[in-house]
Amino acid sequence: MANKAYKFRLYPTQEQEQLLAKTFGCVRFVYNKMLEERKQIYEKFKDDKEALKQYKFPTPAKYKRDFPWLKEVDSLALANAQLNLQKAFTNFFSGRAGFPKFKSRKAKQSYTTNVVNGNIKLADGYIKLPKLKWVKLRQHRQIPVHHIIKACTITKTKTGKYFISILTEYEHQPVPKDVKNVVGLDFSMNTLYVDSEGKRANYPRFYRQALEKLAQALHFGQSVHDNGWGMFTSFLQYKLAEQGKKLIKIDKWFPSSKTCSHCGRVKASLSLTERQFRCECGFVADRDTNAAINIKKEGLKQLGTA
User: Fold this and answer.
1) pTM of the model
2) Which residue of 10, 24, 158, 199 is 20 to 30 Å from 55, comparing CA positions?
3) C-alpha triplet 114, 119, 120: angle, nearest 5°
4) pLDDT > 80? residue 275
5) NCBIfam families in the record, alphabetically (predicted)?
6) Are residues 88 and 100 in contact, defined by beta-carbon separation less than 8 angstroms?
7) Measured between alpha carbons, how far is 46 from 272 in angstroms, rounded to an integer?
8) Residues 4, 168: contact at Cβ < 8 Å?
9) Would you say the C-alpha torsion 265, 271, 277, 282 has a positive or negative sign?
10) Is 259 exposed, middle or buried (0-12, 13-18, 19+ CB in 10 A)?
């Protein structure tokens, strides 16, 4: 099974906007309430991991008893607030993120709901959502009939526009492609990547254009952040898999930059300031292009053994 999301513009009525605002607020309230209690328990048992694991944290149902007005909004939205907090703590305990923070009114306004017993439906330019009933939307493309709606995330932008992201699930068995076209991509501090043909990504970095010459050494970490290399490779892998194609990631210790793509000789060292690769065999090339060619060759080797 595979997943795909479809995003459309929503046009709620004034009454529906009021309920959306209330839902955003209730989701934030429940998230913060649960975080407040979990923070207290964490401080109490942070040195006793077993006691922390066994502790039963309250659910949104408990808050509904204490705060009856929470019953006015979609209960699944509140349940997802709990799941989001659990995910935040999982990331914290695994070292992937810091301790979860409280959500302010200025934070992103959104909530997620799920399909239960046909409570979400699409028909004639409208979508049926829990509590909101039928909401008008601009469906600029059709969702294939074999795609099953699993969840929806409703978001309000800072400019007051509403959008819905519809997550679908479908049976997907991509037909493997014959290996005809292979390209190597080498991460580049300045342009996201350089491929094995010497082409560079047409990638706007949005800021620090004037500091391009300084995008080495000291600013290397910031450049990685700007480019979003991890996000790019994840998206690329997803899109390739949809088409029956494959993304091969080369081991980070593979000496792609130090290896001559012409003769195979490996240099003992290569500083970041050396932008031209020069080999004793006489081969000269752009450093990143040379690395991309080596990555392509290594990928072809792995394809042959896959």
Assistant:
1) 0.64
2) 24
3) 70
4) yes
5) guided_TnpB (NF040570)
6) yes
7) 43
8) yes
9) negative
10) buried
